[in-house]
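@channel sequence for tomorrow's demo:
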Amino acid sequence: MIYDISMTIHPKMMVYKDKEEKYPKIKQVNFFEKEGNYESEIKMNLHTGTHIDFPLHMIKDAANSNTENLDILTGKAKVFDVTHLKEKITYEDIKNFQIETNDFVIFKTKNSLSEVFDYDFIYVDESAASYLAKKKVRGVGIDALGIERAQKNHPTHKILLSNDIIILEGLRLKSVPEDKYKLFCLPLKIAQVEALPVRAILIK
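structure tokens (generated this afternoon):
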């Protein structure tokens, strides 16, 4: 069974905080009547849709997309269903989960049940991020366009990224049961940036 857990890119898609600058702009630039073919161009923020964050996103002069490692972005992953949570994911919520070194941990929350942006989206708080870093996971994914909110100085991002833990945001997990999977998360190959759009799938 293959689950496509990526967002579809289109001009009216859900974007972070409904910010106008986050909406992708797709424009036809070649026409059959003039050039004899059809071509389009896209202008899009790298944090729109399903994407991964690199340390440079939150840490000055830190590693960027040139450090991309496909070994981290493919392999075993675990989806944990926390759709019952109302506000955030804390250490207390995940301390009894079977999380092991090198796991790619993916949280399915109530975020996946909505197709519009929720300003009160479920996020991973600082205590959970610290626990995941101690567990030495290789990545953390969530079905929100941000892994945190309402935390001064972005501690969740900084804890994970400073420990070389990839952050995968913007997942769609509504139809994905809690289980173990094989993750394939393949980004565009763009040099020296802080984030990359990805096509992510889970295989059971």
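heads up for whoever presents: The radius of gyration is 17 Å.
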